[in-house]
Amino acid sequence: FFTMHKQRLSLFLLLIAATLSAQTRIISDAQTGKKGILSWAGDTILPCQYFVVSHEGGGRFLVAADELNIGLVDEQGRFLIPISEGMLYRLGDQPGDAFFKRTSKLPNTGTVFDTNGKLLLSDCQPGIVYAEPGFKGIVPDQRPNRYFTAGVGHVRKFGFFHADGRQIVPLKYENLSYC
pTM for the complete prediction? Predict the structure, then answer.
C-alpha cells in the first residue's frame, strides 16, 4: 500500500516539476531596474536589459528597450516581432489575438501580426469594432474586442477580421459599415 502511494506521489511531484520548469517569470535587476525573464528552473530566458517586460498571456511577452522601441518574445526568448520603433498592442483581449505594430508616421497605420509573429496585414489602419445593437445579430462572438476592420493601400480598401487575424470579409470594399 505504502509503495503504491509513494510511486503516485513521486509521479505527481515529477509532473509538477515538469510543469514549473516550463513556466517563466518576469524578474528585475535590483541595481538597474531593468527587466528580464527567468524560468522556474533558474535559467535566463531573457537577460535583465529591458525597460519593460509585460506578460501578454499565451506564453507571449511585450518587451520594450525604451518608451518607443517595443517587440514581442515567446517563453523561449525568441523575438517573434523584433524590437523596433512604434507602439505594439493586442487587437483583442484573448491570448490568441493578433498584434498591431505602428510602423508609419501616419496616424494609426502599421502592421498586423499573429501571435507567432507572422505578418498578416501591412500598411493598414485597423479599427476596433464595438458590439452595437444592430451588429450583435450578425457575428457569432458577442463579446467586445473580438473583431476589427482594416483599410489598406492608398485607395483604402476595407475588410473585416476576427481579433485573432482571420479574415471574414476580404479587403476589397471602398466602405464598410453597419446596417
Answer: 0.75
Where are the alpha helices (H) located in 85-167, listed in sequence order? 133-136
| Alpha helix segments (H runs only) across the chain | 2-22, 133-136
Question: What's the pLDDT at 147?
Answer: 77
For residue 32, report the phi and psi dihedrals to the nearest 5 degrees.
-95, -20
Q: Does residue 17 sit in helix, strand or coil?
A: helix
Return d(Cα 35, Cα 155) in angstroms, integer: 42
Rounded mean pLDDT, 85-106: 87
Grid cell locating 16: 509538477
Would you give the end-to-end CA distance of the chain in angstroms? 69
Rg, the chain, Cα only: 21
| Strand positions, DSSP E, the chain | 24-28, 35-39, 44-50, 52-57, 60-64, 69-74, 79-85, 88-90, 99-102, 110-113, 119-128, 147-152, 157-162, 167-173
Q: How far apart, in whole angstroms, are the C-alpha atoms of residue 126 and residue 112?
A: 9
